[in-house]
Amino acid sequence: MILLSISNLTKSFGGLVAVGGVSFEVAEGDILGLIGPNGAGKTTVFNLVTGVTRPDSGEIFFAQHRLNQLKPHKVVELGLSRTYQTIRLFPHMSIIDNVLSGRHCRMQTGIIDSMLSFPGKAFDEKNAMTRAMEELEFVGLADRWRDDAGGLSYGEQRLLEIARALATDPRMVVLDEPAGGMNDQETVELRNLIERIRMRRVTIMLIEHDMSFVMRVCNQLVVLENGIVIARGKPEDIQKDPKVIEAYLGVDD
Amino acid sequence: MSDKTRQALITVGVLLFLALPGMGLGSYWLDVLNQVGLYAVLSLSLNIILGHAGMFHMGHAAFFAVGAYVTAILNTVYHVPVMATLPLAGLAAGVFALLVASPIIHLRGDYLLVVTIGIVEIVRIALINNVFGLTGGSNGIVGIQRPDLPGLGRLTAPWHFFYLIWGFVAISMFMFEYLENSRYGRALKFIREDVVAAEGVGINTASCKLSAFVIGAIWAGFTGTIYATQMRTISPGSFSYWESVVLFMIVILGGRGNQWGVLLGSFLVIGLPELFRGLQSSRMLFFGAALVVMMIFRPQGLIPSRNRRYKLPQPYADKYK
Hints:
The structure holds 2 protein chains of 2 kinds. Chain A is an alpha/beta fold. Chain A has 2 domains: 163 residues, 3-Layer(aba) Sandwich (Rossmann fold); 77 residues, no CATH class. Chain A contains 10 helices and 10 strands. Chain A has a 6-stranded mixed sheet, sandwiched between helices. Chain A has a 4-stranded antiparallel sheet with strand order 2-1-4-5, covered by helices on one side. Chain A is globular, with a radius of gyration of 19 Å. The relative contact order of chain A is 0.18. Chain B has a domain of 203 residues. Chain B contains 13 helices and 2 strands. Chain B is globular. The chains are: A alpha/beta, B mainly alpha. Chains A and B meet through α2, α3, α4 and α5 of A and α6, α7, α8 and α9 of B.
């Protein structure tokens, strides 16, 4: 079943066409890699899908919902959450607070309920905390729940961002360079983590520059260059595609 | 200091404070404390907007004015009992905040600051110009009644107001504490830290920011009622831009996001200058200098906000001590 479908998506910034008519689909259960040289428009596609920027034209459908004009928090509510290329945690807040931010949209307590401290509030908080600890255990940061998020290493911060994204009960997560800044050991663990996310029936789309990582992790690849899709398919086919080789390595005249 | 001793100290402090009117404190000092209390509630309500959500709002006196004038007009023109106007004053201030804040809520830091200064000036000038012929122009409104409390009769003496005002401070602090320790209070802090990340993680930032404004304004409106009935006379001069600056200062100086800090700030900014009345005008010079020094050496405020501490549910509480 198609979970996310993008058709003829375009976006220009000033005179620069960042995304020039991109179409592809992500099926439920996929681990789809979006690859391409720097400046190919990968992060722009992510920003368009998650509502951070509005497309000039084209359509984005996620689980039968049209995402085009939705604000980012609405997109998250529909079950699509993300991480960022430049980590965007709340560095001065505790690790558990960071994960609880992901629970916000699934919690019930209203403003008046909380000001009068109705009993439902405590129940709501307790459930959220339990769930936050589950996600921290899932990524392996549970024993540091009290610490400030800013004190984590770069790789750990990426894991915390993933935990926060998973706390929103997503059907799909989009990960923007999840292995960025990770050492070899951490990258191996990340591969393992992504596989465990897939086993939770969460569909994954990711951007990554580390080709051996992408080839091992993804079952589908979409290659972007200068804002258009130049190839799509299984990793083993993409590796052999002459257009992709040209885009990455250049070609002799 | 353990939590228990801290709690004990706070309890003793509060009880001593509540016993002050019985310990022969003169009415002059009670009036000073009452003023501190009014500024404390205003600052605590501003703290939700400025301290928690991190929005630079320097027009809080506008909402205070709306509340005070609603009470004054309803009481003097329509003879509504003062305490019955309290919810209406809060409601009016809240609706006013909703109307003026909706179009500007997306503005960042300094831009928002400039607009909110504009709002408080517009309100003050509108009051001077006697809008709808109800506000009495620059002379304001006189002859507002003292409040009648059911079962207690009419409040007249400074010590009556002492308990009214500080009771209101206490209730507000409890409610704001609950609010802070909720899903919503947490959302405001995420917005203060990084509004893009907050939106991207599923928080409706526009509506959270707007409701912070409205809650703060409702409380400022309530405070307006109490102020009007305590002073019995109100005029536009009491709701100037300068009052908004003082409130802003109290929150920043005391510690944004920390209620105890804001309370301390109210005592320092409003109460302390009274202690040095003998020094005449030079006291404001010292005060200004103290502020400058503070901002250089302790920009986070006297009692900075702390991360919320959680008690984990089981089985995690035992697992991760």
